[in-house]
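Reference record
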Amino acid sequence: MTGGCRCVLAVVVFLCLCLLAPTEAVGGAKSRPKPQKRPPKKPVVDPTDSTPPAQNIDIQQMTGKWYLLNTASMCPYLIKHGTKVEPTVMTLTGPSDQTLSVSTKTRHNHQCWEILQQYHLTSTPGKLTLKGARPEQNTDIVVGETDYTSYAVLFYQKPGKITVKLYSRSVDDLSEPILTKFEQFAEKHGMGLAYLFPFPTYSHCGDVDQDHKINCVPTC
């Protein structure tokens, strides 16, 4: 595995075209097609705007260790390899200088890796930005819901692309109502059970040596 991330979130957009045939009058004469009113343009909705953060989010209380329990995504890599996901743990530190330091540890080919990132705070509490190489590659992270002590639902979003992740403070199973709530969040964005990928809750990585720490901008 190199320093580049292998998971790319892709959403297939289908474009439907409606073709209207000209009408014919009695006797075979072709009538002039009636002018069609152009349908009003639908406003472009940014998926980030459709998922506002929970109210009064205190980022300071979000710091610490979070275990990834489940992911809802249309990421092609997950769809193909979703049964082979590895235990993943995220640690948030800060905030400092308007950024939140993020460490994500997971395993690839039996080797533990640590992904280091910086989430930038925004003027909206509960909304952060992971900056890409270009502005259009930025990822918005939205805290959809949390109680700070047991669970958190995070949305990772770009225009037309979204991944929903369920984190827990421990590896113990969360209550059924919380799991149901996560599934409802996913369903709201068109991701049913076929797009849910549970993560193992055992054998998480511990300390990672410097040779296996990378700076990366994964998108799913």
